[in-house]
Design a protein that fits this description.
Length: 244
């Protein structure tokens, strides 16, 4: 655990470094070859086991979503995976069906461009980097997002190879319109269900800080780091400290 604390401390210190004008491209070699194959094997076994173990919960959530509001149980969205490859991303639906995404587009632009005042105004003065006051969200959707249970269908994305258990979160295609060149470095690896950002800050972390954490994860990746992140994810989710 001392190594964990040291690694996370280094990541936190790296947040103070500005990469707006200069950055060193990430080194993805740690995630290839035998290590990459082992990581993929763990993803398949882990996702399959979790799908079996959580199947009663998945069924219960599906029934709750279906009864809560009209529309499909599963929300399907285009996200960008490794090297910007688009894929179909699955979540339990937490919003009203056919809700306009303009409110999120505007907030995402403010978040990515570092407009702290705009983010704060959108959240009633709260210092949060997620859209908390979203009128599109259903009552059951609020609970699903707070507990991150809406993310469980992404276990299927992991089995398909679109995602990993651990890695940077996959962006929506319109979000990268606001990216700076160095932000795109986070797209060089397979995205994950959870990651360093989720266990170190979530909705309290700015976008630039989140990218720093993603790049630190890529450059310092190890199976042990993945295990530590997975072990730290559950307590964070149980506290409900921001959506994933």
């Amino acid at each position: 655990m001392k190594q964990t604390a040291a690694a996370l401390r280094v990541a936190s210190e790296s947040l103070a470094l500005s990469q707006r004008e200069f950055f060193v491209p990430v080194d993805t070699r740690r995630l290839t070859g035998v290590s990459g194959a082992v990581k993929r094997t763990i993803d398949i076994l882990g996702a399959a086991a979790l799908l079996v173990l959580t199947s009663p919960l998945l069924l219960t959530i599906a029934l709750l979503v279906k009864r809560s509001s009209p529309g499909p149980v599963i929300f399907v969205q285009e996200r960008l995976g490794r090297n910007g490859r688009p894929f179909r991303f699955f979540k339990f639906r937490s919003m009203r069906h056919d809700a306009d995404d303009e409110i999120h587009r505007q907030f995402a632009a403010m978040f990515i461009n570092g407009d702290d005042d705009g983010c704060r105004a959108s959240n009633g003065g709260k210092d949060l980097y997620k859209l908390e006051r979203d009128p599109r969200i259903t009552p059951i959707g609020n609970w699903l997002r707070r507990t991150s249970l809406d993310e469980l269908p992404q276990l299927w994305n992991i089995l398909k190879g679109d995602m990993s258990l651990v890695g940077p979160r996959p962006p929506i295609s319109y979000e990268i319109e606001n990216y700076q060149p160095w932000h795109l470095e986070r797209l060089k690896v397979t995205p994950g269900l959870t990651g360093l950002w989720q266990v170190m800050g979530r909705s309290k972390v700015s976008f630039d800080e989140m990218v720093h954490l993603d790049l630190h994860y890529i450059n310092h990746w190890s199976l042990w780091l993945d295990i530590q992140i997975l072990l730290r994810t559950l307590p964070v989710v149980m506290r409900g400290s921001g959506g994933m």
